[in-house]
From TrEMBL:
Domain of life: Bacteria
CDD domains xrefs: PI-PLCc_SaPLC1_like
Provenance organism: Streptomyces pluripotens
Keyword check for Nucleus: no
The name this protein goes by in its record: Lipoprotein
GO molecular function term, any single one: phosphoric diester hydrolase activity
Keyword terms, alphabetized: Signal
Leader sequence residues: 1-30
Gene Ontology biological process: lipid metabolic process
InterPro entries: PI-PLC-C1 (IPR032075), PLC-like_Pdiesterase_TIM-brl (IPR017946)
Length: 347
């Protein structure tokens, strides 16, 4: 009898141990990092045909940021995509609205078609990692001509719908400003951003050089966000304005009225200016702001801006991640997706 009890006791203990043992082949999964906690790679002026034959190929590239240059054409009332022609389109966006039309249609289309390409590509790749679409408004908005922030939002919403991660998503009905949400690290995980695009807006080179224009894209869109929030309509906004230009400390303080400073959580500046000058970039990761460092190849020691080795790209990504960048950009369009799709821990 004693032997039977002992066998039963050992069996019970074995069963309990089995319940506490992880089943082979099902290891515990590491939690996905938040969007604010990683560093990834982007492609400068990805709309250029010299980089990709079709914009869909830019999306295929694995890059986490793709840049578009946009002009407001006040005569034809269209959003032109071009590097230097404000009255025409010169780009790799094609007249393709459906997945089966990609990689085959006529190019040199307007912004609406670029967005159509994104929507069609998204259908083919619904679980793609988050992609930031950086829009440089070359001459700024033209609100009184019907090409202002409202119309930009409407176009993006009509073309991409729920595939855009918007300012209202970061606020989540909880925070009074983007700044408050960022400081609380309310950013979603990268996994929860699968299939999403985020739009960043920066003032353009022509706009900045215009002596008669003192109301640039960044300020205008931040005003737009503040006003939408006050009106209870922040869900209409589709983009995040960025503070452009590397500067030590908080660049919002010297540039903007206090009423719109809390609507900037994207910052965008030259990588070498940040790093080579020893600026304290920990400010950005400490507050969970998104820091985009451009011309990553120019940081000392400089590497090729077009065709570095894979090892050089990996080393530059690691270096700028330690300097708290969220995204680094260059003209590395020739690199494979295994390189351009690299993501590492920030800071």
């Amino acid at each position: 009898m004693l032997k039977i009890r002992l066998v039963r006791r050992l069996a019970a203990l074995a069963g309990a141990a089995a319940l506490m043992t992880v089943v082979p082949g099902t290891p515990a999964q590491a939690a996905s990092p938040k969007f604010s906690e990683t560093t990834a790679i982007g492609t400068h002026n990805a709309y250029e045909k010299s980089k990709y034959t079709y914009f869909a190929q830019a999306l295929d590239s694995g890059a986490s940021l793709l840049e578009l240059d946009v002009y407001v054409d006040t005569i034809s009332h269209r959003w032109r995509v071009s590097h230097s022609n404000p009255w025409g389109d010169n780009n790799n966006c094609e007249a393709a609205k459906n997945p089966d039309e990609l990689y085959s249609k006529s190019r040199n289309q307007d912004l609406g078609s670029c967005l159509d390409n994104m929507a069609a590509w998204n259908q083919l790749h619904p679980d793609h990692p988050p992609i930031v679409i950086k829009v440089e408004m070359k001459v700024g908005f033209y609100d009184k001509g019907g090409l202002g922030p409202d119309e930009f939002d409407t176009l993006v919403s009509q073309k991409l719908g729920s595939s855009v991660y918007k300012p209202a998503d970061l606020l989540d009905g909880t925070y009074p400003s983007l700044d408050a949400a960022a400081k609380a690290n309310a950013w979603p995980t990268r996994d929860s951003l699968k299939g999403k695009f985020l739009f960043e807006l920066i003032p353009g080179t022509v706009e900045q050089a215009n002596p008669f224009d003192h109301y640039w894209t960044d300020e205008e869109y931040a005003d737009h966000l503040r006003n939408l929030y006050a009106a209870g309509d922040i869900s209409a906004a589709e983009a995040f304005p960025a503070v452009l230009g590397a500067q030590n400390g908080d660049p919002r303080v010297s540039r903007y009225d206090s009423s719109i400073r809390p609507w900037f959580v994207f910052f965008d500046g030259d990588a070498a200016t940040y790093v080579n000058n020893g600026y304290d970039t920990s400010f950005y990761s400490a507050h969970h702001y998104i820091l985009i460092t451009t011309d990553a190849a120019g940081v000392s020691p400089a590497i090729s801006s077009t065709d570095p080795t894979d090892a050089e790209v990996a080393a530059r990504l690691s270096l700028l991640a330690k300097d708290h960048a969220s995204l680094i950009t260059s003209d590395w369009a020739t690199k494979p997706a295994s390189v351009l799709g690299s993501v590492t821990t920030r800071g």
